[in-house]
Design goal:
alpha/beta, six-stranded parallel beta sheet, elongated
Amino acid sequence: MSRVLILGGTREARRLAAVLVDRPGLHVTSSLAGRVRTPSLPPGEVRIGGFGGVDGLAGWLRDKAVDAVVDATHPFAARMSANAAAATARAGVALLVLRRPGWTAGPGDDWRWADTLPEAAALLPSLGERIFLTTGRQDLASFADLDLWFLVRSVDAPEPPAPQRMHVLLDRGPFTVDGERTLLREHRIDVLVTKDSGGDMTAAKLVAARELGIPVVIQSRPPLPAGVTVVPTVAAAADWVVRHP
């Protein structure tokens, strides 16, 4: 019996679990960080909560006799990806990173890239006054001191510090272009701020911004740990797991 640990609460992680959970000879466990109050759970065995850093994860891998780990966390879960690389190396366990491709600007897009959220925040006063912020509920501190109006969308309620002038919209993707276009118009948004999450679940806002001529500020992805093997699709990750001894 080969034991596989899937890290992450992403859609790709759930799909991978669904593909693998009933395969003979595989025991699949999915691990979620527990930061969302009502997560969408994958099929099969699920654990929720952290491991206690590199030492904790390496110990868990040894205790459970895990043969392979698939890091299917969010592209911005840099700490978890770094911990997974270090822990698997320490425990002698094979590691694969499943990472959806990032977004690419097309004709008509007005995108500005920033390496960090403070850099993104610094661009806003020169671009507009009504900001649609979709960077996550835990990332508002960089925008807290700006004298601008923010529409903040997140799955759970945002955590302080946060902008003084802010309207919170609790919602979960996928979103449609029609819905995003209506949202941008109703709130008179003139700048969109997001992260390069990739995928199609939240890409509709980028299409709507293009159609309405709204500039977009995008935080670039953090680099992956050196030397890790990366695949872009669930099918490629499933093939790797099945072929892994």
